[in-house]
């Protein structure tokens, strides 16, 4: 199953973070200004009926490589200049050719723009690692963490560190769990994460 491959893809990262934790060497939380992700979603301007969250993604499991010629800096600048209210940055390496430092690089060229870390996050240490970046929000996928109590802990941890959690659902069952977890921001993915088919 593809979901199991996503979990496997993050095993090394989580193991590395656990090793850092044992050594007392986890990255410290970002001390600069984060963008306000919820405020960006609720932004209302004359002639702008909705907020666009523009995504930087160099590859995907369904399409393979997409575009490696554009840097995160160049793409972020173009998105913000075109009116994007927030940026979604893919940081998963194996399937999406992402890097965690894309967040810092995007923030450096577009200060104040809220950034969403889009990755496979299911462990509290990954939340801690995200908090060391300028990310304003992180993604939690119900299909990867189908436990309302765990989703709640991860969301509350993110909020305690100054970030928001965007909770992704793919169907009614996921939506029930997201609501049980107290999710404040819910996004719907029309793609089945096991088959990659779009409904």
Supply the key terms.
alpha/beta; TIM Barrel; six-stranded parallel beta sheet; two-stranded antiparallel ribbon; 8 helices; 8 strands; globular
Overview in brief:
The protein has eight helices and eight strands; from the N terminus they run H-H-H-E-E-E-H-E-H-E-H-E-H-E-H-E.
Could you please describe the fold and organization of this structure?
The longest helix has 13 residues, at 148-160. It is globular, with a radius of gyration of 16 Å. The protein has helices at 2-9, 11-22, 37-41, 72-81, 101-109, 124-131, 148-160, 172-180; strands at 53-56, 59-60, 64-65, 86-90, 115-118, 137-141, 164-169, 185-188. 37% of the residues lie in helices and 16% in strands. The mean pLDDT is 93. Helix 4 (72-81) packs across helix 5 (101-109). The strands form two sheets. Strands 1-4-5-6-7-8 form a six-stranded parallel beta sheet. It has a two-stranded antiparallel sheet with strand order 2-3.
Low-pLDDT stretches: none
User: Numbering strands along the chain, what is their spatial order in the largest sheet?
Assistant: 1-4-5-6-7-8
* Helix-and-strand structural type: alpha/beta
Portion in strands: 15-25%
Instruction: Bin the helical content.
Output: 25-40%
| CATH topology-level fold name | TIM Barrel
CATH superfamily: Aldolase class I
**Gyration radius, rounded:** 16 Å
- The total count of helices amounts to 8
Looking at the overall shape, the CATH architecture is Alpha-Beta Barrel
Q: State the end-to-end distance.
A: 19 Å
Q: What value does the average pLDDT take?
A: 93
Shape: globular
User: H/E series, N to C?
Assistant: HHHEEEHEHEHEHEHE
Q: Please, how many domains?
A: 1
The tally of strands reads 8
